[in-house]
Design a protein that fits this description.
Elements: H1 4-9, H2 11-18, H3 27-37, E1 44-47, H4 75-82, H5 90-104, H6 113-121, E2 125-126, H7 139-148, E3 153-157, H8 164-172, E4 177-181, H9 187-194, H10 201-217, E5 222-229, H11 234-246, E6 255-258, H12 276-279, H13 284-287, E7 289-291, E8 296-298, E9 311-312, H14 318-322, H15 325-336, H16 344-347, H17 354-357, H18 382-385
Length: about 400
């Protein structure tokens, strides 16, 4: 989930930011404006139930970069988080969906990355992080605990790990959305991308069985097959079309997903990054928080090694963490560029920051352009600004 009210209320300001209307002298006022629209009640984007994984995906920083210990979330930590989550009201969601349809022409009936983010992720608590959810032996109980509280849930998994019985269990527990990542249309390519335990043929056949089981037993979980666009050449585009053709006429929400980040891996460096951060800026500090398996709160899903700890759910409430000094500093840095040296947001993440649009470089907070210049280097042509946002790690 994320703060849908913030997305709506800040839209006009966002458009002015990316259009280069504001400059360095506007930072303080802009920071105050964002704070005015920010809810003092936090929205939880996702809870990482485990960071164990039996895959070696080439696009995932977990494979070679993550150094933290593998753990499963403690039941006490998980329950403590759930007790502080309030599901979004149906009327508010419907109003938001009308807004994204009318404002950005994003419609659920047109499956793509935008539609998935705004119509699905907006209402669901995500139960994955840098691990494989189906390796969590208590994932069924965790889904049920959310269902009992009226919290919609979603997680993404590698189909090599699924069985019909396992999927039936989480679906019967009330899982709202179940997403499968198929990134190659044959066993060889799937193994190359996701690791030796992967396959395509068996995974595809199992998904078809799950769809039959869902229909037969009247289950309501939305099934989402997706393919990450690791390349954007002619052969890759043909494979993407073939992937979507596989699901024609089937009860699924199938779409092709762009790379979340260019900083880790892609086969073709000319591939287009369609993340909303490419044409806009990171909004996580104002829209939601992430809880990792050890109970630490971090600002977003990109913090695979839990470097940017803002608090721990066993030591403080989510409200206190969200409104605390450490979080306020993070928001301030995103606007002013005055990050401390070595900070991940500034030095090891390619997502754009508000400060860049104000002509301020992260870390140094020096002018990127002279006062009065047209636009900072990161600003895009206005046609790009009108594109609806897409979120990372959805």
């Amino acid at each position: 989930m994320f703060d849908i009210s913030f997305f709506k209320s800040i839209d006009d300001v966002k458009r002015r930011i990316v259009a280069g209307v504001f400059g360095p002298t506007d930072a303080a006022q802009l920071e105050a404006t964002l704070e005015q629209h920010r809810s003092t009640t936090p929205t939880v984007f996702n809870v990482e139930t485990t960071n164990y994984c039996n895959m070696t995906c080439i696009m995932c920083p977990r494979t070679t970069l993550m150094t933290r210990k593998n753990i499963w979330i403690d039941d006490t930590v998980f329950e403590r988080v759930l007790d502080q989550i309030t599901p979004l009201a149906t009327a508010d969601l419907e109003d938001f969906w009308t807004f994204v349809r009318d404002r950005w022409n994003v419609r659920y009936e047109n499956p793509d990355e935008n539609a998935f983010y705004f119509h699905v992720v907006s209402r669901c608590l995500i139960l994955h992080g840098y691990g494989e959810p189906l390796l969590d032996k208590r994932i069924v109980q965790r889904v049920q605990a959310c269902t009992d509280r009226g919290i919609p849930t979603y997680f993404s998994c590698v189909p090599a790990n699924i069985t019909v019985a396992r999927c039936r269990a989480v679906m019967e527990a009330g899982l709202t959305v179940l997403k499968f990542s198929l990134d190659g249309l044959n066993d060889e390519l799937q193994k190359k991308i996701r690791g030796k335990r992967n396959n395509f043929t068996k995974a595809f056949d199992t998904i078809l069985e799950i769809l039959e089981m869902k229909k037969r037993e009247g289950l309501e979980t939305v099934i989402v097959p997706t393919m990450i666009a690791l390349s954007d050449d002619e052969d890759a585009r043909a494979m993407h079309r073939q992937f979507l053709d596989l699901w024609t006429g089937k009860d699924v929400f199938a779409y092709v997903k762009s790379q979340d980040n260019r900083w880790y891996f892609e086969e073709n460096d000319a591939a287009e990054n369609r993340s909303h951060y490419e044409s806009q800026y990171c909004e996580f500090p104002w829209t939601s928080l992430t809880v990792m398996a050890d109970g630490n709160v971090v600002p977003c899903t990109q913090d695979y090694d839990v470097e940017m700890v803002l608090g721990n759910v066993m030591e403080e409430s989510l409200v206190d963490i969200w409104n605390g000094e450490t979080y306020r500093n993070l928001r301030h840095w995103h606007v002013t560029g005055q990050f401390p040296p070595g900070h991940k947001c500034a030095e090891r993440c390619d997502q754009k920051k508000i400060c860049g649009y104000l002509g301020l470089n992260p870390v140094t907070a020096k002018l990127a352009v002279a006062p009065g210049s047209a636009k900072p280097p990161c600003a895009k042509p206005s046609a790009q600004h009108r594109a609806p946002p897409i979120a990372a790690q959805s």
